[in-house]
């Protein structure tokens, strides 16, 4: 019983931080396969690789492995022939993000017009259930790995923590997880001591020996 009470108090104390699940671990982003019409797979792969590099360079996040991301896409969208239409639907992006437990999902749609490439980038915030989209036209730049993507506004304003920058609003001391953990440990210790003291059998007689007498 004492262990259960102690565990319950600790869980309650940690929960008072308000953001306990995010206290341990970084946000994660799933960069999904790039879909296209009439574009070789090598260009799609290069574009996806470039998107991953840009996100990891600017933001302090973890990238979901491509294997896990592809598996989630197959689980939601089915065969690759259906990915173009499926990945264009916001609900599908949210479902994929939940499958891989990602903070956000980034995907691109690629189409070729002469020597230029039309790219539609979409970022789905799975926590806030919001979607941001931007359409850009870039020259084909396979030799340098789509370097023009670095200036795309969408990629510069993702709702993710940036590297080397502190949060603009520091968490108050009473919202920090270690404060409430210490409080929980103290409360649990006091409660355990009180219960042990109340339940311990007394070794002293109920009354002094010379004052006790047996009733007839």
Element string (H = helix, E = strand): HHEEHEHHHEEEHH
Mean pLDDT across all amino acids = 78
CATH topology of the largest domain, what is it called?
Rossmann fold
Number of strands: 6
Q: How far apart, in Å, are the first and last alpha carbons?
A: 42 Å
Shape: elongated
Total number of domains: 2
Which CATH architecture of the largest domain would you pick?
3-Layer(aba) Sandwich
Give the CATH H-level superfamily of the largest domain. ABC-type transport auxiliary lipoprotein component
Low-pLDDT stretches: 16-24
Largest sheet, in brief, is:
6 strands, mixed
Count of runs of 4 or more consecutive helical residues: 8
What CATH first level of the largest domain would be assigned?
A: Alpha Beta
CA radius of gyration is: 29 Å
Q: What structural category arises from helix and sheet content?
A: alpha/beta
Helix percent band: 40-55%
Amount of beta strand: 15-25%
Concise description?
The chain is α/β, with parallel strands linked by helices. It is built from eight helices and six strands.
Structural write-up:
The protein is α/β, with parallel strands linked by helices. The chain folds into 2 domains: 1-25 and 174-197; 27-156, 3-Layer(aba) Sandwich (Rossmann fold). The chain has 8 helices and 6 strands, in the order H-H-E-E-H-E-H-H-H-E-E-E-H-H. The protein has helices at residues 2-15, 20-23, 41-58, 66-77, 83-86, 90-99, 153-156, 177-199, and strands at residues 28-31, 35-37, 62-63, 104-113, 116-125, 130-139. Strands 1, 2, 3, 4, 5 and 6 form a 6-stranded mixed beta sheet that branches. Helix 1 (2-15) runs antiparallel to helix 8 and helix 4 (66-77) packs across helix 6. The longest helix has 23 residues, at 177-199. It is elongated, with a radius of gyration of 29 Å. The model is unreliable at 16-24 (pLDDT under 50).
